[in-house]
Each structure stands twice: as C-alpha cells, then as structure tokens.
Amino acid sequence: MVQLNPNNPLDGGKLTIADIAEALGVSKSTVSRSISGKGRISEDTRTKVLDFIAEHDYKPNQLARGLANSKTYNIGWIVPGDSDNDALPFFQRCMMGVEEIAAAFDYDILISLVFDNDLSGLQRVINNRKVDGIILARTLLDDPNVKCLLEGEIPFVVIGSTPEKGVIQIDNDHVAACKELTSILILKGIRKLAFICGNSNHVVNQSRLKGFMDGVEAGGVKPDNSNIYMDCDTDEDIERALDEALRNKVQCIVCADDHICYTVINNLNRDGISIPGDIKVASFYNSILLDRNQPPITSLQYDPKELGMTACRTLLDYIDGQPVNEKVMLSYEVMLKGSTL
Amino acid sequence: MVQLNPNNPLDGGKLTIADIAEALGVSKSTVSRSISGKGRISEDTRTKVLDFIAEHDYKPNQLARGLANSKTYNIGWIVPGDSDNDALPFFQRCMMGVEEIAAAFDYDILISLVFDNDLSGLQRVINNRKVDGIILARTLLDDPNVKCLLEGEIPFVVIGSTPEKGVIQIDNDHVAACKELTSILILKGIRKLAFICGNSNHVVNQSRLKGFMDGVEAGGVKPDNSNIYMDCDTDEDIERALDEALRNKVQCIVCADDHICYTVINNLNRDGISIPGDIKVASFYNSILLDRNQPPITSLQYDPKELGMTACRTLLDYIDGQPVNEKVMLSYEVMLKGSTL
DNA sequence: TTGAAAGCGCTAACAA
DNA sequence: TTGTTAGCGCTTTCAA
After folding, report:
1. How far apart (Å, rounded) are the C-alpha atoms in residues B303 and B178?
2. Total domain count for chain B?
3. Closest protein CA to C1' of nucleotide C4, residue
C-alpha cells in the first residue's frame, strides 16, 4: 500500500511571490511586475527578480493568477463521446491542433464528452467556470449543445456549421467540396450514382447531401432520390443501402464518410465485387484506412488539425476582445484515386 | 465580424457568496457552510440559503474554492499524441472511464499530449499546477514521463506497468493473458507460431512477449526465436515479418495488437491466403475491427473503460490521502473465434 | 521606479 | 449555531 505524504500538498514547499519579495527585499508588486512585464520597472530590479526566479525554479500559481484577473487559462474541448471508432481520429487530430495553439498561449485544454440527449457534461463545464471559452467539436442540425452554449454566457466557437445565428463557426466548405467531387465523377461519364450517408441530424451530413445534389444537378444528371440513402447509422443500414444500390445497377457508390466507405468496401470485397471494375467507389472523407486500401479510394481531403488550430486561434482572439469572422471556411482537396478509374 | 461584449467577462453579473450573504442577512461563512455541509448549521438557515441559491442559479467559483484550499479539482490525462489510429479507440475508452469517475466527484479532466522525446506538454501540466493529480495513459520501458512525474511532487498513477519503484499502476495482467491464449493455441495442436509485435519500448509489448514465451514454454514447444518479430513499427515491417513467417511455414500468426493484426489480415486477404484454412491468426488485443472481420479473430479482450475508471478512482483516493495498492491488475477474457478453428 | 493595500471568491480557525 | 477574521497567491490601483 502506498500513501501520500500528508505534508506534501500541492503548495508544499512551493515558492510564492511573497517569498521572493522577502528574499530580495522588494515588494510583492515589484515581483509581479517583473514577471508580467506590465507597468514600469527598472531593468536592474527586473533581472534581479528574474534571476532569482530562474535559480529557484519558481512557478507562478495559475489559479491565483486566474482568480485575480478573472481568467482560467483553460479552454473547454467538447467532443461527442459516442462517435464511432472511425471518427475518433478526426476529432483527435482536431484536438491536436487546438492543443498546439492553446499551449503556445499557455492555455490548457479541459475536456468534456457529450452524449446524445445528455448535456450534463457541457453544463458542468459551463457552470464550474473553469474555462475561458469553449470549442464544440461537432454540430447537429438542431443542436442542444449550441443552444446551451448560447444561454451560458461564455465565449465559444464551433467546428462545423450551424443554422443558429451569431455563432462563430470554423468549417470546411463541404458543400463546395462534395459538389466538385460529384461533378468530376459525372464528367468521367458516371451517370448513375448512389449516395450513402449517416446521421442526417449532423450538419456535416446535410452539407454533403447538398453538395452531392448540387453536383448531380450541375452535371446535368437527373437527380435520383431512390439512390440516396440517409441515416445509415448501423452497419446493417449501410449493407442494406449497398444491396439496393447494387440491385439498381448504380455505377458508383459515393460514401459520406470513412466509416460508411470502409463498410462498403468490406462488403464488396467479401462478395467478390471488384473496384473499380464492377463498381466505382468514392468517399467524401479521406482517411488512412481508405488510402491504404487496394485500390486507394477517391475522396475529399481536409485538414483536421488546421481546423482545430483555426478554431483555437479564433476563440482566443474572441476572448481577447478582438473582432473575429463569424464564419471561417477552410479549404479542401479532391483526391482522385484508383477506385474511380 | 463578431465581438465579445466587453462588459460580459466570466464573472459578469455572477453572484458571489457575499451577494448571497448580504441578500439573506447572514455571513459569508454561513453561506459557505450551507453549501459544503461542513460545520454545524441549523436546518432552517441551511434550506434558506439553498433555496436562494437554487432560485438565483448561483454557481460557486471553483477557482476561488480551489485557491482557498489548495485544490484544483482537475486531474491531468496524459496521452501519447502520436499513437496510431488503431490505438486511439483504446485511449478514448480509457478516458471515458476516467471522465465518468471524475465527473462523479466533480473533477474535470485536463488533457495533455506527449510525444516521443518531448516532455514539454507534461512539464507544462506539472508546472502550471492546474491539476491535483495525473494519470499517465501508457508506459514505456525507460519512461521519461514517469521520471518526470516522480520528480514533480504531484500524485500520479499510470495505466500500464513500469519497472520504476513506488509508482501506482493499473494494468491488465497481460503476461497471464497472453500466456493463457498461447497455451490454448498450442493445446489445439498448433506447434509452430509466429509472434509479430510493435515497439519493444512499450511495456505492454514486453509483457505480451513474455506471456507468449511463457505460453510456448508451458505448451512444451521449443521456443523459436526466428519467428519472433519485435519492433514492427511500420506497415512495411509488419509485412516483412509476415512474409518471413509464411516462408517459415508457421501455422499461426499471433499479433501483439490491433494494428498489426489488421495489417496482417489485409495482407493475407490481398494474397488470397485464407484464414483459418491456410493459416490461423490470433491477436493479443481485441477491437471491433477484428471482431467484424470474416472470420472473426481469436483474441484477448480487456475493458479499457474499466481501466480508466479504476485509475481515476485510485488517483482520487490517493489524493485524498487514503492508502491505495501500488499495483492493481484487472482481468481479461480469452475470445476464441473462427480465425483459429 | 517602487511599495502599500485592497481585492478576486472562497474556506476555515477562532470567537461569540 | 453563527459571525469575524485571516488567508489562499496573485494583480492592480493609488501613493509615495
């Protein structure tokens, strides 16, 4: 059994600003000023203090600093707790972007998972007031999280888009991207496409649907609602959609995301249906999973880390009182690969 | 452009304990006591205060509370930032366990990513003292993170094992688990096995290797070092190991983890080598990926969420000054599936 | 350029 | 049972 040495609490033996002041025969404010650089101070005393600090490895107490000026130096990262495994890497890369920027400004990330119909995690973060701002990693069509954030008086940005007014949004231009890819497919002579999509309550899926439809229309192909499969949330849904699309003799399966595409490929492989010989496959999201497939899958490529970095930078600016754009659209890339040859 | 309303800082219009005290004509300490329940207080005043609080939606400032009693009510979750996509779900599920327990005790999770040879993230967390304790999500053989934590005077537990003394460890019994699965395979008549493993600097991989060797020995099979492939960090390494194992005519490929197993299966499928007909495959870690494979893969199963929950509970106990076990071993399950029939 | 003092919002001895 | 007071460690006016 191990037990914590009781005379070793967090502040145990830790230097405070008062200790430094006393040791150096100056006042606390002098020390504070030396550290922050705010207010006038002689170069002499400043270096004297700084030297002492370096030598004695003093670390300011962020809590106290926070209390004194109503800041926490934390930002909240709100991420869906029930996203499927294939979506995890996306959020993880986003978070890495957030953390990179946050760290550069000496901010830390407080994480909270939200589940469908369970706002408690988000509410905790807001209520506890341990963050200066919040980044919501994904948006829903009628998003209770966004509503909750709008009510809580706390700066926030969302990664994704939302119909809600006055929300700072960082997103890729999914509509344009999906339209472009779809158009290209049609230009290649593919006239009959199926679109298999997940949860239609996710804004991103709505955008992808719209992009797909726009692309179909722009390509002069009559939109065919019978080959649009929304809300394929389970693998069974996806398989059912795929089966029907195959029966309908579509030439290309366009998958809204990674997970769907992975499932589609798996099924086609299992049934000995060859890509792109028998049928072509494209995806509106790229992942390593798809890229290392044989053949690699034509897809759209976004930069999730960039998304996170931009979101964090924007939030920090906003917290800082600087004006920021209500909507930032990041770019995308169309990756034509072997699956649509 | 959107801009933050400047008269809406974090504390803007927020009620404080002093406001409540004044409104109710009592002292601050009475209010404080009513909330915390510490110290004696009459039921009357207590409900009076609580009612007021409920009605006016008062939320205590956790920062101030923390400063007053040297606590942050945060715990740090240190997770490798460069783990491959296949490992992400494991850490994510762990974290969900951590967060579940943490939330129950009104603790929040501060996240920090660590990369190989980059301790800055961890150091920031320690230095900023914004956490009461830390959970390290993975251990290395000669782990700089553990060393760093040992120096920083902060309670911590690791998920995984470490040779370092005096470290609180929560782990599955990988050695026993891997030994058991290996023994079973041998009992089924498989005499020639290959073991393909990742980074040998990860403690878990060392344990798996040991378990495998123990199992081989217990099964009365002469250990064959030529079919042990360590440090297969890239897909190319894995493929090379697989090729050699196939040339050596092993009967079963035992994969140390998800990612390796996934790559192995992919390669076998691509080359038309059938499982379990031509060769059998087993994995020392189960994932949905492997379970939905055709055929499903024989593997070990652990409960990552349980790992996280136990780690968090242990850490909280430890922070609380209660004695805790230096090492907690969680159980495992052997899942025999079609890949080793 | 520096210091004294008040205050951030809460807790916890100590008194009453 | 309640109030008074001092403090947690830092920032920031205001004076000197």
Report:
1. 15
2. 3
3. A27
